[in-house]
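Human:
If only I could read backbone structure tokens as easily as an amino acid sequence. I am handing you a single protein, as its sequence and its fold in token form. I hope you can help me see how the letters and the tokens relate. Thank you; the sequence and its tokens follow:
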Amino acid sequence: MTGFQVTEVQKALKGADYPMDGPALAELAKSNGAGDDLVQALQGLREVEGPNGVMKELKGELGGSTDD
């Protein structure tokens, strides 16, 4: 599986109203035109408080810098 770019995740979650859980994040990403693999990865996330939480949850699947 190829990693997701940070900018790809940010674009997919544009307009997110945190806190949000995985199914809600996946639905938002889908409506924002995200690819099926990203939507599927988001689906399994627990509730996160903001974008940094999403990045931490996806850490193993991100490509590029996460500035962690």
In short: The mean pLDDT is 89. The helical segments are 6-12, 22-31, 36-43, 51-57. The longest strand covers residues 4-5. Residues 22-31 form the longest helix (10 residues).
